[in-house]
Amino acid sequence: MIRVASYAKQSSSGAPLIDPDGKVNVPNVELLSKFDDVTLEMSPFARNYYGAPDARVPLMLRQLNPSIRLWMYVLMGDFWQPPTFVPAPDDKSAFAEVFRAINSGNGWLYDTSGNLWFPNNRVNLADEATAWKLGQLYVQLVSLKLFDGVFLDCAHTSIAWTSKPDRPLDVARAGFLTLQEMDAARAKNVKMVVDMLNKAGGLDLQIGYNGTGDKPEGTDVDMREGLGTLIGPRDAIAWIREYGGHWLKAEAYTPEEAVRKLATLRGVAVFSGQAEPIISLGPDRGWPPLGR
Fold it and tell me: 94-103 and 128-142 are packed helices; what angle lies between their axes, rounded to 10 degrees?
């Protein structure tokens, strides 16, 4: 059996699961319920503009598919908007609160020319105060018990690999003497957040991790992206064989590509000897999953 998951993103308004008039888009939620695992954005489902959870979609998904697993999606080491973005004063959404947690201290990364570390991996998770503030927010949201797990994306325990000769990280501005020291602090802080989540969620809360560097102790699953592009079938089989908490993400942008990727996933499942822990976080651009 291959567990099929939706990694499709929703906007902070809830679209396409919530329409512009504020009503739940029932057909889209019904299609999404056909997946085994579903990631839902923090805003608006855990914390909307007014600071309250919008639980309509999570509860409907559970009603339609009692065995579904819902994951709160957390972009831990990055931010969708550039740091020049400023939320409205009355915006109490999780999206706005994440920005405030990063922006309130030494939370942004820069290159040595003084440019913001944009467009990727821009959050300074090596800064303990920033990581702690983000962890506190995540704990508030998982305490709602709307989700079975938290998926930490871009939660790299190593950031040194992003620093290039033509675009070096400003390590001193981030608060460190060397990249190695910065990575060590980053790994420690990611582990701190994982520990905070485990303490808040107990044994029932699953924690997924996607990032470069060592997988933090206390996480339940580890993901590799780009099946067929960044990772080939041979490496995928070895990845899945290693242990039961390894996932694969197979992006599919057309129905034809989805058919090919699903066939590859099934082949990996057979040759790895694993009955279940292979997961396709996709197709990203289309519902429902093939064969469901």
Answer: 160
Q: Are 163 and 169 in contact (CB under 8 A)?
A: yes
The range of the structural domain enclosing residue 82 comes to 3-219
What is the tens place of the pLDDT at every residue in 263-287?
787 777 777 776 555 566 554 555 5
Count the domains in the chain.
1
d(C-alpha 220, C-alpha 97), whole Å: 26
C-alpha dist (Å) from residue 279 to 131, 175, 246, 249: 29, 38, 8, 7
**pTM confidence score:** 0.91
Amino acid letter at 175? G
In this structure, the number of other CB atoms found within 10 A of the CB of residue 168 comes to 13
Give just the sign of the alpha carbon dihedral 30, 31, 34, 36: negative
User: Is 266 a domain residue?
Assistant: no
**220 secondary structure, DSSP code:** S
- Residue 100's contacts (CB-CB under 8 Å, 6 or more residues apart) are 87
